[in-house]
Every structure is written in structure tokens, then in C-alpha cells.
Amino acid sequence: MSTQQIGKCLWILWNYVQLYALGAWYLLKELCIPHKKPTGIMNQSGRVAIVTGGGRGIGFETVRQFLELDMTVIIAGRNVPVLEVAISEVRAQGVKRGIAKCLELNLMSLSSVRKFAKDFLALSLPLHILVNNGIMFWPCEMTEDGYESHWSVNYLGHFLLTHLLFPTLVASSSLESPSRVVNLTSSVHYIGSINFDDINYMRHYSAQAAYAQSKLAQLMFSITLADHQKASGRNILINAIHPGVVATDLFQHVAWARTFPFLARTFLKAPHQGSDTVVYVAMSSHVKEGGHYYENCTKTKPASAALRNEDRARLWALSCQQLQIEQFW
């Protein structure tokens, strides 16, 4: 084995060690700190939300809670028939309120993101809440646009989607009830870094490092966009949340959870608990500002890497370059 190969193996091992140490800490933390339910939720009748990845896990539970609050919910995902089955399950659970509509969105394809935005705009609906979900620990895969899968699905595709829908969010916002963007990041952002010299991690690929990078980028985007809104005087609340260590299908690529699923179900949060912080940040009257990071329905200090102005500006410029955006929305 060459020195380069040894270095690669050690680097991948280090990512595993960091990830599992952080995961163990958060698991202990969540076992010791009581789960908080969302508070300050006002009437949502007549309001419209988009939830990406709403067919399963946290996204599915977010959709269910939104429908219970009598909202119109656009569920965005790769497989519309699967999404429609999910809605049938929600209705079978006794949720009769709200309106649900499924639209195709494949975040592995930037052309699909643009088509979804056009399809939504053709509905002539307002947009009050945009919830951006993602994937976790995906095997190494490049998109048709030439980007690593975590980068495209968790970050770049949602950057583009937010850009395309932002005029509608602005038009739908009011001083009393501002439109909101909720980006699902992760506590893994604490061990993440933006690999500006190799954004696709082609030199040494690690799903853990790529995932952490995408979640850090999502948080940095949330803070930067919120700063832009404050500077412009617009009343849009953009925040990022960690839903908790939740037992969902996202753990399909995590060896221990796949081998011992009963352990995941026993010790991790249930999906409906994972959606509570999403609902809180998306709707609570207690959330009055953007540019923050939340865990367990509580504003929490993010990693220092997310707060570096120079890096956030560099990431913003890179993202606009990759998406060929001259000016955001």
C-alpha cells in the first residue's frame, strides 16, 4: 500500500471517528434533555407550504403536521406515485384537513429543480413556507450536472430552488406573518468544512465528509441569505435546524442502524419528534428573526465555521457561479 493510500485510509477513518463521537454525544444529550414540542403555533388555514422530500421520514411527518393545521402542502419528490401513497397513509391515519398536492422534484438534476419551480408557479399559489430536506451518507455518485450527490441534493439544488421561488415568498409575506424558509441542516455541521479546492471530494471521497460539508453549506447559506434580507429590509425569516438524531430511512447507509434496526428505533428520536423543530421554526410566533440555528425547538450556537464572513461570501459566490446566477432572485 502506497503512502497516498495510507493517508486516504487514515483520513476516512478520522471522519468516521469524528462522526461517531459526535453522534454518541448527541445521543446522550437527547436521552438526558426532554424533547420539546412546538409552541406558539397560530392558525395556518389558507397558508401554503412546500416540503421537499416529503414522502418519508421527517419530511412525511412535517407534511402530516402541516395538513393537521389546515394548510395547502406541495410535496416535492422524485417519485410522485410514492408521494401519493404517502398522502393516502396520512389520510388513513385520520388527517382530513388541509390540501395536499404532489409535484416531481429530483434534486440530483438542476433542470428538474427549474421545472418544479415552473410547475409550482403555474399553480398561481402564494408561498408562505419552504422546507428544504436532504439525504445522508449516500454512496459516491455524480449528478448529471457534474456535482457530488450530497452537494447537489442537500445544498446546491435547494439554493437554486430558494432562488427561483424567492419572489413568490416575498410577495406572500407580510409584517404580521412573514414567509419563512427552513433548511434542515445537521449537528454534523460542527465537524464539517468547505473543501473549496475540491468541492466534489474527488481526490479522497468520504460520504461522511461530503455530508458534513453539505450541511455546513446549508447553514452558511441560511445565515448569509438572512443577512441579505435584513440589509434589504424585506421581512423573510430564513433559519436552519437540526431535527435530532432521528430513526428514519436516512440511516439506510449507516451500518450499525441497518444491522441492528431495533437499536435505532429504541434509542433514536421518532420521525414525528424530528419534525417538531421544523414545525416550530416554520410557524411559531416565538421565532421572530432569521439567520439562526435551532435544535430541539431552541436557538443554539452554530459552529464557528458557519459564522466566518469571508468563507460565507466565498461560498455564496461559488454557488452563484455553479448555478449561473448573476443576482439572487
Structural features:
single chain, 329 residues, alpha/beta, 10 helices, 12% strand, globular
Short description:
This protein is 48% helix and 12% strand. With 329 residues, it is α/β, with parallel strands linked by helices.
Would you give an account of this structure?
This protein has an 8-stranded mixed beta sheet, with helices on both faces. It is α/β, with parallel strands linked by helices and 329 residues long. Helix 3 (80-92) links the parallel strand 2 (72-77) and strand 3. It is built from 10 helices and 8 strands. It is globular and about 60 Å long. The chain has helices at 3-32, 57-68, 80-92, 110-122, 149-172, 207-232, 255-259, 261-267, 271-283, 309-323, and strands at residues 48-52, 72-77, 99-104, 129-132, 180-184, 237-242, 293-295, 298-300.
List the helices and strands and how they pair.
Layout: H1 3-32, E1 48-52, H2 57-68, E2 72-77, H3 80-92, E3 99-104, H4 110-122, E4 129-132, H5 149-172, E5 180-184, H6 207-232, E6 237-242, H7 255-259, H8 261-267, H9 271-283, E7 293-295, E8 298-300, H10 309-323
Parallel strand pairs: 1-2, 1-4, 2-3, 4-5, 5-6, 6-7
Antiparallel strand pairs: 7-8
Helix pairs in contact: 2-9, 4-5, 5-6, 6-10
